[in-house]
Amino acid sequence: MSIIDSAAGLHLLPSPFADWFAAKGWQPRAHQMELLARATAGESLLLIAPTGAGKTLAGFLPALTDLTRRGKIPPGSAFTGVHTLYISPLKALAVDIERNLMKPVSDMGLPISVETRTGDTPQAKRQRQRLNPPDILLTTPEQVALLIANGEAERFFKDLKYVIFDELHSLATSKRGHLLSLGLARLRRLAPDLRTIGLSATVAEPMDLRRWLVAQSPDRENHAGLVTAPGGAKPIITILKSEERVPWSGHQAKYAMPEVYEAIKAHRTALLFVNTRSQAEILFQALWSINEDTLPIALHHGSLDVGQRRKVEAAMAENRLRAVVATSTLDLGIDWGDVDLVIHVGAPKGASRLAQRIGRANHRMDEPSRAILVPANRFEVMECQAALDANYLGAQDTPPVGEGTLDVLAQHVLGMACAAPFDEDALFAEVISASPYTRLAREKFGRIVQFVATGGYALKTYERYARIRKTIDGLWRISNPQVAQQYRLNLGTIVEMPMLNVRMVKRGARGAVGRGGASLGKVEEYFLEMLAPGDTFLFSGKVLRFEGIRENECLVSQAFSLDPKVPAYAGGKFPLSTYLADQVRSMLDDPQRWGALPEQVRDWLALQRDVSALPKRDELLIETFPRGSRHYMVAYPFEGRLAHQTLGMLLTRRLERAGRRPLGFVATDYSLAVWALDDLGYSFAVERPSLENLFDEDMLGDDLEAWLDESFMLKRTFRNCAVIAGLIEQRHPGKEKTGRQVTVSADLIYDVLRSHEPDHILLEATRNDAAAGLLDIQRLGDMLMRIKGHITHRRLDRISPLAVPIMLEIGKEPVAGEAQDSLLAEAADDLIAEAMGETQI
Amino acid sequence: MQRLALASIDIQDFGAVSARTVVAGVEAVCDPLGALYLPETRLLVVSDLHLEKGAAFARRGMMLPPYDTLATLKVLEAVITRHDPAIVVSLGDNFHDRVGSAHLPDVFRSKIAELARGRDWIWINGNHDPDGTVDLPGQSADELHYAGLAFRHEPSLISPAGEIAGHLHPAATVIRREKAVRRPCFATDGRRLLMPAFGLMTGGLDLRHKAMTGLFNRPSLVAHMLGRDRIYSVRFANLIG
């Protein structure tokens, strides 16, 4: 649609809007007018637009114009419910939008009330909002869940016209999105005429989001209309070409610090993105160690104290900083002043993520964003090049919406019982109108209701303690008001790892620890378990000395060393996306494309080609070689760390059964190494077992089942499911449970449940979750299918160039399962040696 | 749950998987299932069974699996069968809450009666169940003094000598090569011994926790840790390698 066409829609703009645009010297954009016209005509819509395209204003225009026409409600009128809900994934974003929206509203003198409601909103204000709702309420998914579980929901939402979902691509693809989709289904029942508007960055499957926005019916598929805004200027992206040697492995990119620092100096404000918190800490420290001009460089990640983060954000907004080192906490669309350069340290792992992050520079459509990619190792050089090609090609690899999860459904069912007594069939019909749940079986829904009532166990001993009960009228209702109170305290789908607050203390002369000082943020408790008092580690941009744990706090003091003993602690890591993996494989397979790579990387690949082979795009290269007293197998599937980890577990199981005495394995995003006492190369050559059998898809059957049940990863998944489903409370009225207590009991509950009722619905939910996310089983299955009949085996005398990076990772992997007992044995042997009168080592 | 699996295995060489220790001159054996056996007096000690923990939570609206009592009793049966003790001492927190023993389903009640047949059974009262047990064999007491040892739920701050206590659910963490493994343990310095929690749905408290300070003479403190299929004995000083 051109500007001229859009002028036809101008009559839709009430005069204050037309005047306001004119006064600003702005022209409403085509997609804004198109969205306004179609929404006003009654359509639900998905707007796909790049950063800086005026997405937010577009989303609000239909509501603002409708409210302007309606005018102010005279005092003393009958109760009027909320007119428009705006839902954002971040509290901060809701607050930011309020500021941005209030500006035009007050400029134009519109008779519209706008308020936020988040977890931080005071109780009194929330109370008042329920009695006297604003026209536009800006809020988060959790608040929506709270509002619809309230007895007054029907009244509050009866006048609802628009629901706007910001950053829908990020919201919809998680458990939060599943809960929100169920909430939307309830809103549609309360206000059948409501229209939805989804705002999204470019996604791989727009149809998923279009379905998500409207009610689905059992017999046919419905979807919202689509409005697309044209892309802005193409970003200018380069890969840092360093004079230094690019390392074989590692994630720190320390080699490139001088060049990164120069780039910061050459720009106004730079945003430096990394993938993990530990990388953020290390990068920040490395930059400050060479910051001779003492440029204001700050650090921002999710574990830091909120106060500290807000300070950084404020300084950013006021353009007082030259650079911020950040993790994904800054991914989403908050406006942070004048960023003119994005530096991405480490590979972006996904083309869409890279596009989002680069969009943070120059929030204006007509100017190109500038970005520099800094690969941390040689494989990342290729990955960066692949991502760069992808960004120009406009390829996308956003995650899918996914099947609605059962734990979230359980939470929602309890919430609906808190709102009002429900009829099971009617609620089922409502639930399957939400697109993630359309395929839910009626029988499974029934089991979820049973789960909510009494835990859904085969052994029925909890009937008298039931949380919800079916009464004589056939409706389910909560047993007592405490149930609703507990629900409200524990609602939400964000389950935190057990974390401890980090507090700075002064260390006295004889090691005595003084009273607490500033709070620096939070670290995972499992990380602290590895520390002994006196150990030093990197956090919050400082080298800290661990002093001990007091109640729920980790006490630290200033360390006077620059070299932390324990490197840092790992935060979340994204696996390499399928799309990028395919790009890297095809680049390896095509020497024509190597021209874009630095010389040292080209040489590395050429050497690999000479001494072994390069993996072809659709085949799997396996190398075997001896080293020390062990025999190694390295495979190069390029399917991401998660899928490789799963594959590693399954391969070692099979090799064990074949009598090949495997000892361990390690996985990276690109490859997988297994080592054994037997000569694996010889074993494969004489087909004991053959590689075709070893890599047969049937490993995803029984072996997977057997391994899954023992996997520690499944326990973590179970904990999340149990908390979300309401089996375990994070908070109980009157007593706060610490994360530690929750973890311990979740593991034990998992074990008890698994050994006594392996078919329990929550275990089913856990397995589904793990298969979809944590273990990347789908991806592994696709890979095994792809390589069938395409395995190339190279028996080598020694390690190949391509195998070096993964061999350097050996020894860094976490310890799990049976390996734990070998550590115990190691420690216990000390005592035996001592008891036998031998000298201690 | 490794203990539940271990309970169903017929152990050939018990000496190799258990650990011998001496508390105030009395010989004792740490069983990898989490019980302490005193051969001289044929006395078996278990602590912190926390029976009916699932039900206790269900009463408060959290529907934890109702199988914990069953699982704990299975392990208890295995350890009683192994040692055939004359006396069983359950060292407190036998039930997870005050009404636990009164509401105990009949099937479990008869299981306990069967286990107690032909032996003495002492229920020491704990902080979770201070009022004693209802309709179960044996007798309840706050403390037991027998064979030169004192059996009580909470360790006393004044008289450590010859004390066998529970309550704290001791666990020890071994660290080797920046990797940590944590397991429940018997903790003893030769004067006093703290029992690991026997209940299968119970958590643990690290020996370094401040609640443990002052209880032991650390240079002679040993943690007898519950491994997958045996006890691993580690000196406190050697936990962190």
UniProtKB/TrEMBL annotation, chain A:
A GO molecular function annotation here is: ATP binding
Q: Enumerate the InterPro entries for this protein.
A: ATP-dep_Helicase (IPR052511), DEAD/DEAH_box_helicase_dom (IPR011545), DEXH_lig_assoc (IPR026362), Helicase_ATP-bd (IPR014001), Helicase_C-like (IPR001650), Lhr-like (IPR017170), Lhr-like_DEAD/DEAH_assoc (IPR013701), Lhr_WH_dom (IPR045628)
Pfam families reported in the protein's UniProt record: DEAD, DEAD_assoc, Helicase_C, WHD_Lhr
Query: Which SMART domains does this one have?
Result: DEXDc, HELICc
Check the record and name the SUPFAM superfamilies matching this protein.
P-loop containing nucleoside triphosphate hydrolases (SSF52540)
> Where does the record place the Helicase C-terminal domain?
256-407
Describe the location of the Helicase ATP-binding domain by residue ranges.
Answer: 36-221
- Protein family according to the UniProt entry: Belongs to the Lhr helicase family. Lhr-Core subfamily.
Q: Spell out the protein name for this chain.
A: Ligase-associated DNA damage response DEXH box helicase
TrEMBL record, chain B:
Residues annotated as domain Calcineurin-like phosphoesterase = 42-137
Q: Which InterPro entries match?
A: Calcineurin-like_PHP, Metallo-depent_PP-like, PdeM-like, Pesterase_MJ0037-like
Q: What stretch or stretches form a coiled coil here?
A: none
EC number(s)? 3.1.-.-
Q: Which SUPFAM superfamilies match?
A: Metallo-dependent phosphatases (SSF56300)
Q: Which NCBIfam families match?
A: P_estr_lig_assc
Give the originating organism.
Shinella kummerowiae
The UniProt entry, under Pfam families, shows:
Metallophos
GO-annotated molecular function: endonuclease activity; hydrolase activity; ligase activity
Instruction: Tell me what this protein is called.
Output: Ligase-associated DNA damage response endonuclease PdeM
| Keyword presence, Metal-binding | no
- Keyword entries, A-Z: Endonuclease, Hydrolase, Ligase, Nuclease
Say yes or no: keyword Ligase present.
yes
Query: What enzyme class is recorded for this protein?
Result: hydrolase
